[in-house]
Amino acid sequence: MTQALAEDTTHEAKTRSATMKKIEAIIRPEKVDDVRKAIEAVGYPGITIIEAQGHG
User: What is the pTM of this model?
Assistant: First the structure.
């Protein structure tokens, strides 16, 4: 592998890991803990959970 290609690959990996994504989901209350644990298991320990009430 050439040095330029190695540097580009390293830069791409750093950029990809620093990119944030926003995911919004409506989850039944009894499934919140399962979803939270699954998200943490794949490497995302920080999430925000907001309880909403209503219908329609």
Answer: 0.55
* Length of the chain measured in residues: 56
The string of DSSP letters for 1-50 reads --HHHHHHHHHHHHHHHH----------GGGHHHHHHHHHHTT-------
Separation CA 4–CA 53 (nearest Å): 54
Task: Tokens for 46, please give them.
Answer: 């920080």
Closest C-alpha to 49, from 20, 19, 33, 21: 33
pLDDT tens digits along 12-37:
555 556 678 888 999 999 999 999 99
Contact 19, 27 (CB under 8 A): no
